[in-house]
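4.2 Preliminary Data

To establish feasibility before requesting continued support, the project team ran the inverse folding procedure on a target of 811 residues. The structure was first converted into the token representation described in Section 3, and no sequence information of any kind was made available to the design step. The complete token record follows.
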């Protein structure tokens, strides 16, 4: 019982402990539940506790289920109302956001306006304060500005008075300002600046003069050009008077002191602004462009201060430096005429200024100083022109340069500078001009000769005929009588070359103008240059055309005809030069034209080229020869290649009708001799080792065709059998072999009346050896035939006798 009670008591105690633990679990924070659970696991009733815990969980689940079932509808209603409230809350939020944005926008403009108002009020206060301070400072600034204006306008004495008034009256009122302290510190410097301002003006003047020397020189040269044109029109006006008038017009002396209070523009630098004027308007004098008052002022001030010598030395030293700069030509001066013009303008401008200073001041510069500068300038200018003109290859540029140098010399001569050395140098440039002309005309002649068709000029009307005769001096009464259309004997390059020679003479004449040369010197220069044109330039051009590889016989014939007519026109060129120089050809020192020699040499070269060309054509035909040296058939007509060759020769010599008789005859004889020699070489060449009598018969027919051509007289002027003699060697050799007339040949050899006098035994033996080999190898049974054996013995006998003749001849 007691055990049962004890067990029951223990069970109740355990149940109470489990209940306590469950209450602690339900009421204790999760983070502190660890010790409670540990007490469960420390006890022995773990299983029972778990049952108790499961029971408690089921009870709570039932209570929760009851409660949920009881409050479910209210929960659903609450959720529905909450969703409605959320939509309204979102609308309210949007309205609040929109209201806030509008408020911020309106407030931003208000803030900006307030900030601007703040800045305006601040500026207003600053402006008021500034105006008050400026009212005190403005008189000081006005006085200082007046001082600067007076210094700029070179009013030195009023500037000193203004400076004193500023220092003692105005600056003490505003001395606490920093700019006033700067002014006070600058007052000694300003006094020193006033002292040196005249020298500063002089430096500006010198710098401006250096920059504008080309403008001054351009004006002076333009005025000299106008005066020269006027002198050419009014020849009766004395030249010295003209120069004095020119110089008088140029010199315009300015006042030594300018008292105007108005500010200057470019007068401060010594250069007046002059717009470019039209050619028909009056050109201002060179000194109209220059204000010399800075020089005069500075000279006056330094004279008063007793330092005139210092000023003179400084001025001359600076001008010498500028002279060296002016005389240094640009590296590309030779490329254009503007480069030379600018160079000359600067030199002229420099010496125009110095000449004016010489005549308007006393002692600043003297004649010895000017002469020294001019000697240096003259030597450097001539050296520069020699160097740069040597690079020029355009005759037009050289001619323009010559005219520019003449104008340059004439301009400086007006001012009393000696310019003889410049004209001496122009004579050197004249030689270079002639060389550039020769190079230019070499191209002109080359183009004329290359573009010519080398055919007689056809004319179909009287107008065309007169046009050609007007271009070239040609007279032929027979041609004039012929009806139109008709042809001149020469091609178009004859009048073109003749006119280009005249153009060359005109170009030479242009250079001699204004060089102060006598008519004899001009005539001599033109003739020498024309001789160079004929003997070197034109001769080389003709020789190049004649030596061209593709030149034809027709072109060569026409060249001979053309040069013949050009040779005849040389006397008209002599008359042309005489008319433009007014120097008679009978004058002792007159140079003769060498055109006749030039055209003769060209014609001879063309003749030689015709002979060579004919021989080459003959060789080309002979290359077509195709002889069957072993044939036994006897032909009845000449070879086709030879027939074509004879036809070519006939048509070629028909073109030679306009050639001089000797040229055509020489060409014909040369062609026949070359043909005969080539045929002989063809017959005897080493490659032909054997030949038959039939082959000789065919060769004989070809030679007869050549003889027939010679007898037909392709070129008039030959005696009856003269042209046939070219083939006499071949004829006698072939007759000897075809007629087999060895007994006559061997019996009469060496006698003047020998029938076969032109047959050389060596040639006969060579040909006989070729036939002997043929007889031996004609067929294998030849040795059994009596006739063949006799013929072979006869050939051997003749060959032996020929060798004897050759041996006796050599011995």
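Position-by-position output of the design step:
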């Amino acid at each position: 019982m007691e055990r049962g009670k004890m067990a029951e008591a223990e069970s109740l105690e355990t149940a109470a402990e489990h209940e306590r633990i469950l209450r602690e679990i339900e009421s204790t924070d999760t983070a502190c539940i660890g010790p409670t659970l540990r007490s469960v696991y420390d006890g022995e009733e773990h299983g029972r506790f778990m049952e108790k815990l499961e029971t408690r969980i089921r009870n709570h689940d039932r209570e929760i289920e009851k409660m949920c079932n009881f409050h479910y509808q209210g929960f659903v209603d609450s959720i529905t109302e909450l969703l409605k409230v959320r939509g309204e809350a979102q609308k309210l939020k949007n309205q609040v956001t929109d209201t806030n944005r509008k408020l911020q926008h309106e407030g931003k403009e208000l803030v900006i306006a307030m900030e601007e108002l703040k800045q305006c009020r601040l500026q207003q206060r600053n402006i008021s304060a500034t105006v008050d301070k400026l009212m005190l400072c403005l008189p000081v600034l006005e006085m200082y500005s007046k001082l600067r204006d007076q210094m700029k306008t070179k009013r030195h004495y009023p500037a000193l008075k203004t400076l004193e008034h500023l220092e003692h009256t105005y600056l003490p009122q505003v001395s606490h300002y920093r700019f006033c302290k700067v002014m006070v510190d600058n007052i000694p410097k300003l006094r020193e600046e006033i002292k040196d301002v005249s020298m500063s003006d002089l430096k500006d003047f010198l710098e401006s003069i250096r920059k504008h020397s080309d403008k001054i020189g351009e004006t002076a040269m333009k005025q000299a050009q106008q005066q020269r044109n006027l002198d050419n029109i009014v020849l009766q006006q004395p030249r010295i008077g003209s120069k004095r008038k020119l110089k008088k017009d140029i010199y315009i002396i300015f006042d030594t002191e300018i008292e105007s209070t108005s500010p200057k523009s470019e007068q401060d630098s010594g250069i007046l602004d002059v717009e470019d004027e039209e050619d028909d308007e009056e050109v201002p004098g060179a000194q109209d462009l220059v204000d010399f008052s800075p020089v005069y002022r500075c000279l006056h001030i330094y004279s008063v201060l007793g330092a005139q010598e210092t000023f003179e030395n400084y001025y001359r030293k600076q001008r010498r430096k500028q002279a060296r700069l002016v005389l240094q030509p640009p590296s590309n001066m030779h490329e254009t005429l503007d480069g030379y013009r600018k160079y000359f303008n600067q030199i002229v401008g420099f010496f125009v200024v110095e000449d004016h200073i010489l005549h308007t001041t006393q002692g600043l510069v003297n004649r010895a100083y000017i002469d020294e500068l001019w000697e240096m300038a003259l030597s450097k200018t001539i050296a520069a022109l020699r160097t740069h003109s040597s690079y020029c290859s355009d005759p037009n540029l050289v001619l323009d340069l010559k005219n520019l140098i003449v104008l340059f010399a004439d301009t400086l001569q007006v001012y009393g500078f000696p310019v003889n050395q410049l004209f001496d140098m122009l004579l050197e440039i004249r030689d270079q001009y002639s060389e550039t002309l020769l190079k230019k005309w070499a191209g002109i002649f080359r183009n004329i000769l290359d573009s010519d068709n080398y055919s007689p000029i056809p004319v179909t009307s009287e107008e065309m005929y007169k046009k050609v005769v007007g271009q070239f001096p040609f007279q032929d009464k027979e041609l004039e009588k012929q009806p139109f259309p008709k042809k001149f004997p020469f091609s178009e390059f004859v009048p073109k070359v003749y006119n280009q020679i005249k153009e060359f003479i005109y170009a030479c004449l242009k250079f001699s103008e204004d060089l102060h040369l006598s008519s004899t010197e001009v005539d001599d220069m033109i003739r020498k240059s024309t001789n160079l044109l004929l003997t070197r330039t034109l001769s080389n051009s003709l020789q190049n055309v004649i030596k061209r590889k593709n030149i034809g016989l027709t072109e060569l014939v026409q060249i001979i005809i053309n040069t013949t007519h050009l040779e005849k026109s040389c006397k008209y060129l002599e008359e042309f030069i005489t008319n433009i120089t007014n120097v008679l050809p009978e004058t002792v020192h007159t140079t003769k034209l060498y055109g006749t020699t030039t055209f003769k040499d060209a014609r001879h070269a063309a003749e030689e080229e015709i002979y060579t060309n004919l021989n080459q054509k003959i060789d080309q035909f002979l290359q077509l020869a195709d002889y069957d040296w072993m044939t036994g058939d006897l032909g009845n007509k000449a070879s086709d290649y030879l027939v074509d060759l004879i036809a070519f020769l006939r048509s070629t010599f028909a073109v030679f009708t306009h050639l001089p008789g000797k040229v055509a005859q020489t060409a014909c004889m040369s062609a026949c001799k070359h043909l005969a020699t080539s045929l002989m070489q063809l017959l005897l060449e080493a490659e032909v080792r054997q030949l038959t009598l039939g082959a000789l018969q065919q060769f004989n027919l070809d030679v007869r065709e050549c003889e027939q051509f010679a007898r037909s007289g392709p070129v008039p002027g030959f005696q009856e059998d003269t042209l046939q003699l070219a083939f006499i060697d071949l004829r006698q050799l072939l007759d000897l072999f075809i007629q087999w007339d060895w007994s006559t040949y061997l019996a009469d050899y060496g006698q003047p009346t020998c029938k076969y006098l032109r047959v050389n035994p060596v040639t006969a033996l060579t040909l006989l050896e070729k036939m002997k080999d043929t007889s031996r190898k004609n067929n294998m049974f030849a040795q059994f035939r009596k006739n063949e054996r006799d013929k072979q013995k006869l050939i051997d006998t003749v060959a032996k006798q020929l060798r004897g003749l050759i041996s006796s001849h050599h011995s």
